[in-house]
Write a structure and sequence with these properties.
The protein is an alpha/beta fold and 473 residues long. Strands 1, 2, 3, 5, 6, 8, 9, 10, 11, 12, 17 and 18 form a twelve-stranded mixed beta sheet that branches. The protein has a four-stranded parallel beta sheet with strand order 14-15-13-16, sandwiched between helices. Strands 4-7 form a two-stranded antiparallel sheet. Helix 2 crosses helix 12 and helix 4 crosses helix 5. It starts with a strand and ends in a 26-residue tail after the last helix.
Length: 473
Amino acid sequence: MATSALNTDRKIVTGPAGYVLEDVPHFSDYIPNPPTYPNPLQDNAAYSVVKQYFVDEDDTVPQKIVVHPDSPRGTHFRRAGPRQKVYFDSDDVVACIVTCGGLCPGLNTVIREIVCGLSYMYGVKKILGIEGGYRGFYARNTIDLDLKTVNDIHKRGGTILGTSRGGHDTTKIVDSIHDRGINQVYIIGGDGSQKGAAAIFDEIRRRGLKVAVAGIPKTIDNDIPIIDRSFGFDTAVEEAQRAINAAHVEATSFDNGIGLVKLMGRYSGFIAMYATLASRDVDCCLIPESPFFLEGKGGLFEFIGKRLKENGHMVIVIAEGAGQDLLDESNEQSTTLKDASGNKLLQDVGLWISQRIKDHFAKKMTLNLKYIDPTYMIRAVPSNASDNVCCTLLAQSAVHGVMAGYNGFTVGLVNGRHTYIPFYRITEKQNKVVITDRMWARLLSSTNQPSFMKHDDHHEPNNSGNEAGAMNW
């Protein structure tokens, strides 16, 4: 019915009517005749009421769900969930969990639910926590994780394992995994960390080791492609409301009051956009994907003056990556430095634009501008109820996939269904706001701000076709 094409990077299965499955690797691809065992879930009391314990091997999830009658079936991903056979004897499992990159609400919840899933569902007894990110594999001690250790960690922000940027040395990490007898690796991190996970998996496969590597995508900016959203995003939007509300109170309490809030969003403005739409108190939202200019007709300064004249106050939300081109033009010391994860070190656009606004209006009126940067407050809070559920399902899906012998994958929600996605699809590009799409138009109609596009600005038409990850509601 379907044909498969397998190379060292991609496992593609094609079928009738343009069906394409971008499958994930499996132990059976490179280990001859791996042993299998009955899934312990069939004897698990919690699953005794479930009519269908296991996911069918042929179940897949389409990447695009809005199609025309004559459209090809398109790209699909393997559906997540438990399988009838598992490729690990629970008594032989030595699992490890590592958190990498910056903080994000929900990290501790994911850790907890991986431990609970392995323990309660599969009877795994040996689970290790790798301290301090990737370098913890070879430079730090591990800690034992059990049900008692993780019992209430979901109520805390941050990560009990600690984290760091950089420190990825594939050879040292795989050597450490092999020396410690680890055979399941769960990596919680953003796109850079998932690239590191892909490199670890490639080296493990090259050595022919029976070690499963699974990624749980973590990005507070929601900039990982394919997936509907990443954990922590809902919490970030909710917490951003507190800063926006404070800015609104300050702005409305003074003549010509301006509340300026800088939110996270290095390359993608999803937090700023959704926080603006949720708040309804924001007059202007600036994101990296939508260029703007300050002076002249149709510029930001003109709009600020107009809004202050109309309302006497104004709230501006700006993503940290917005306007970086303007900073580079005005600052002779523009930086090309990068952090340990390879991200460009951004200049503080919030402080810069605050000063530019003050300077521009200094001789025209007395402004009362208050600048609020809640970045580290947002990153450090525990996840809310919605994200806690999201973290639980991601963690359990990752555990099911690993026990079923799948390898080299990231787990993610695609069109409302949990799936196993090949690493290369997660790391090939970033998810960004499409400013020619309806969601951005909804924001513009909500704030009644101009697009700030000059006549010589050209943007490619949106061909996203409601691709998962675009969040086109």
